[in-house]
Design goal:
Rossmann fold, Nucleoside-diphosphate-sugar epimerase, about 300 residues, Lipid_A_modif_metabolic_enz, globular, seven-stranded parallel sheet, Epimerase_deHydtase, NAD(P)-bd_dom_sf, single chain
């Protein structure tokens, strides 16, 4: 079995490659530049948003891929950047898949932010009408919608995994946890105080390795074509808990921490909690890694200790 992972060098892509490799698949990664963790896998250096659909189809079809995973696209600072790296990429990918004489399963990574802000206490189900408000969330929804439209039209065999916020090893540098980890490391190195502004928010977080396992399951599940499937823990966890677990992992002295409340500033609102019943039923999949262990693993991995 062959899988082609788009965005293979990113936070999610590297874990997806590892999960498939552990199950004996022939793994082929695609990204703009290679990375050491892809040693032993096939690799094609390609800017997917710039590449012609025919070029992408050649990578997917020679030899034929059984599964294609789209974990590509960065966060982006502007709507133009997001449109290029996500929406343009997906449009080229859809055209490329339509050129193939067979239909590999496409697993597309979406985001919980596609739902948009919701009142506290809301359980986010896949049938909820999304109302995103930020450029990031709107573009992510457009990419997922493009994949779903092609699948429902019979052009593709595809499933969209709408993933919660992620924790665990190798977080993207733009993420809240990665930025916090840098600040903690700097304060430790210089012996100074750590000033933290912690928002009164609760969000669904899931370990990136659990997400990778969901991707593997979705690649072979028989009844998910054309569907959105939520991937999270099904819990709304206080942001302050994540902060505490990171400080604990770093053994940062509590008497050197100055905390203050802060307004919510993120790509989502102050509450997310996913209903993961569909993932349990159809993939079948459930998260296995606890969030405290996930945050500790993130810190250990960043400091050269196996996660």
């Amino acid at each position: 079995m062959r899988v082609v992972v788009l965005g293979a060098t990113g936070s999610v892509g590297r874990q997806v490659c590892a999960a498939y490799a552990a199950q004996g698949w022939d793994v082929h990664g695609v990204a703009r530049h290679p990375a050491p963790h892809l040693n032993g896998c096939g690799f094609t250096g390609l800017d997917l948003a710039a590449a012609a659909p025919e070029r992408i189809a050649a990578v997917l079809g020679d030899p034929p891929a059984d599964v294609v995973v789209n974990a590509a696209g960065g966060w982006g600072d502007t709507e133009e950047e997001m449109t290029y790296s996500h929406l343009r990429l997906v449009r080229h990918l859809v055209k490329a898949l339509a050129l193939l004489p067979y239909r590999p399963r496409l697993v597309h990574l979406g985001s919980v932010h596609e739902y948009g802000p919701v009142p506290a206490g809301t359980l986010l189900r896949e049938d909820l009408v999304p109302e995103p408000v930020t450029p990031y969330a709107r573009i992510k929804l457009e990419t997922s919608s493009a994949v779903l439209a092609a699948a429902r039209a019979g052009v593709l065999d595809a499933v969209v995994l709408r993933a919660a916020n992620m924790s665990g090893p190798h977080p993207p540098q733009e993420s809240f946890l990665a930025a916090l980890m840098v600040r903690v490391k700097t304060a430790l190195a210089h012996g100074g105080r750590l000033e933290l502004s912690v928002a009164d928010a609760r969000r669904d977080f899931v370990d990136v390795r659990d997400v990778a396992q969901a991707v593997v399951r979705a690649g072979r599940a028989p009844a998910v074509g054309g569907l959105v499937v939520n991937i999270g823990r099904g819990d709304a966890v206080p942001i302050g808990d994540l902060v505490d677990w990171l400080l604990e992992a770093a053994a940062f002295p509590e008497d050197r921490v100055d905390r203050r409340a802060a307004p919510v500033r993120s790509k989502g609102g102050d509450w997310t909690r996913l209903d993961i019943g569909r993932a349990r039923r159809l993939l079948p999949w459930a998260p296995r890694i606890g969030l405290r262990d996930s945050v500790h693993s993130m810190w250990r991995t960043a400091h050269g200790t196996p996660g």
